[in-house]
User: Fold these one by one.
Assistant:
Number 1:
Amino acid sequence: MTADVASTVYPPEHARDAQAIEAGRLLFAGACDFVAGAPTADALPEDTLPEVAFAGRSNVGKSSLLNALTGRTTLARVSNTPGRTRQLNFFSLGQRLMLVDLPGYGYAEAPKHEIARWSELMRLYLKGRASLRRTLLLVDARHGLKPIDDPLMTMLDESAVSFQLVLTKSDKLSPKGLAQRLETIATALKSHVAAHPAIHATSAQGGTGIAELRAELAALASASQPC
Ligand SMILES: Nc1nc2c(ncn2[C@@H]2O[C@H](COP(=O)(O)OP(=O)(O)O)[C@@H](O)[C@H]2O)c(=O)[nH]1
Ligand SMILES: [Mg+2]
């Protein structure tokens, strides 16, 4: 079991123990309620819980990952409702941790003024949110980091918001391909001051790495002071 756990967290010394995995399971087995959707900065809900934001280019597998983590389709269903895809959606996990689904970027068909509007909303949120403990930056394991991810990483560096790489669709790579991808990304992250050193490799399809990511988030919920 330890070997399995270590294989989805890189470098492996960041893997968590069985007790932490159980804490993650328990946290994500509880209620997960839609709290608010914010199309503009003045519609953001009050900071009441520690928050973890989920970001990444569209089609990276964010909805699938949120479904796999929570074991239910509530989040993706709400976030994919027309009119809600370009806003920040807030979900309370057992009143202990707020999961924040950020709009996907790099959506080619979106009009320029729309892109400008949601970039500004993300910037205001990421820079000004006192309860934001970490942003998970989702990256497709097949493609790795791309120039399209740079503006967000720069914004997070400048805002001193800790961010952590989560690879999605790890089932699409061979173990060797995945190991190489993790090494390349770890090297690229060295130039980002706000980057967390541990990378998670996940597959929403096969469930790989999901328990470990739950454990990581549960540790954040417990470590945080009340807001
Ligand atoms: N093979 C594989 N495909 C995935 C996985 N997660 C998502 N996908 C596929 O990637 C596409 C985009 O997924 P979605 O969750 O809607 O991405 P979003 O736009 O970031 O919310 C869909 O076709 C999913 O079926 C995964 O873990 N493995
Ligand atoms: Mg989605």
Number 2:
Amino acid sequence: MNILIVYGTAEGQTQKIASFMANIFHENGHNVVTANATENPPTPEEFDAILIGSSIHLHKFKSSIKSYIKENLMGLNEKLTGFFSVSLAMASNNPEEHEAVKEITTSFLSKLNWKPKHIYHMAGALKFSKYDYLKKMTMRTIAKKERPGEEIDINLDYEYTDWKKVETQTLNFAESLQKLKLHEQT
Ligand SMILES: Cc1cc2nc3c(=O)[nH]c(=O)nc-3n(C[C@H](O)[C@H](O)[C@H](O)COP(=O)(O)O)c2cc1C
């Protein structure tokens, strides 16, 4: 089946997650197109299922993803769809931080009037090598709050994405698509 993954990213982690998901779909016999929301991504029409992912910066999803959803709302609401968020908050041990991500997501999706069948939340990364000095300082302060007790060295990058969990989430989406197609055939 044909799956489209559209992602919005600033430092590349959401793109990395999208590629990882695409590989899993490939291994399971699907055709996959991955597209950056800023690079004229395809519309949903010719796909059986669409996954849209965005990282969170300053409590907001990428504006390119917002625009893509707005422009393709009708097409999206007719298909099997999923949304995935990528954030530092999901790397926190504090359940309140996870709740905050869920609230940002619920509010974002309901304002757009898009109802994806599946919503997944994923921990992202801290890429100090890609930040300017001010961002390094800000992100170190935030990281200390999100991950108390952890030594944060601004000369290193940190990846918190739980790839096993992403694999499970991807397989869950593939299974949902399989079930839908079987249902349509009967
Ligand atoms: C300037 C900046 C602001 C951020 N703001 C948030 C935030 O509000 N909440 C959060 O959970 N993570 C925040 N993060 C962490 C990002 O979501 C995380 O680094 C993610 O992996 C970025 O994914 P990307 O590389 O695909 O953009 C922020 C990161 C940066 C650099």
